[in-house]
Amino acid sequence: MSQSPARRTVLRGAALVGAAGFGVAACSGAKKDDGLPTEPVELGAAAEVPVGGAKLYREDRLVVSQPAKGTFKCFSARCTHAGCVLTGVTKEEGDCSCHGSRFDVTNGQVIQGPATEPLPEVPVKNKGGKLIAG
Ligand code: FES
Q1: What are the Cα distances from residue 7, in Å, to 3, 4, 19, 82?
Q2: Rounded to the nearest whole angstrom, what is the distance from the C-alpha of residue 87 to the centroid of ligand 1?
Q3: How much is the pTM?
Q4: What residue ranges do the domains of the chain occupy?
Q5: Which CATH class is domain 41-133?
Q6: Where is the Rieske domain positioned along the sequence (predicted)?
């Protein structure tokens, strides 16, 4: 009992569309701009950012860390190498899976290339328990 060639073709096509869709999402910001918000962006509860850690806001292309209780730092999450949006954070490190760059998200500095430029900082404030960036 094997599948008909037509069904296999459809399934293979669907898999390719899925992979292509992921590629677009991961590198949707491939053009070289700074990725900084042009108006204030409400990110949600400040309590969601762990002390000694960070939270990635991929949709907003921002990353916020809280190196000390009540101190928030916000950076563009657009990798300075080729413009992919960071794909994850581990404690205070932001990772770009496009080519492997890693950033310290408490100061934006590059930990590992190929990126050479730091992430641009974005002003952020805690207003009544909500983070507002930009
Ligand atoms: S775009 Fe991030 S490492 Fe290349």
Answers
A1: 6, 5, 19, 38
A2: 10
A3: 0.74
A4: 1-32, 41-133
A5: mainly beta
A6: 41-133
Residue with tokens 């900084």: 36
Residues with CB under 6 A from ligand 1: 79, 81-84, 96, 98-101, 114-115
The C-alpha angle 67, 70, 74, rounded to 5 degrees, equals 55
* CA–CA dist 85, 98 (Å, integer): 9
Q: Looking at residue 19, what DSSP letter applies?
A: H
pLDDT value at residue 41: 92
Whole-number Cα distances in Å, 89 to 24, 45, 65, 72, 119: 20, 18, 10, 15, 14
Q: How far is the CA of 106 from the centre of ligand 1 (A)?
A: 19
Secondary structure of 30-67 in the HEC alphabet?
A: CCCCCCCCCCCEEEEEHHHCCECCEEEECCCCEEEEEE
* pLDDT tens digits along 58-90: 999 999 999 999 999 999 999 999 999 999 999
* Distance from the alpha carbon of residue 113 to the mean position of ligand 1, in angstroms: 8
What pLDDT is attached to residue 38?
A: 83
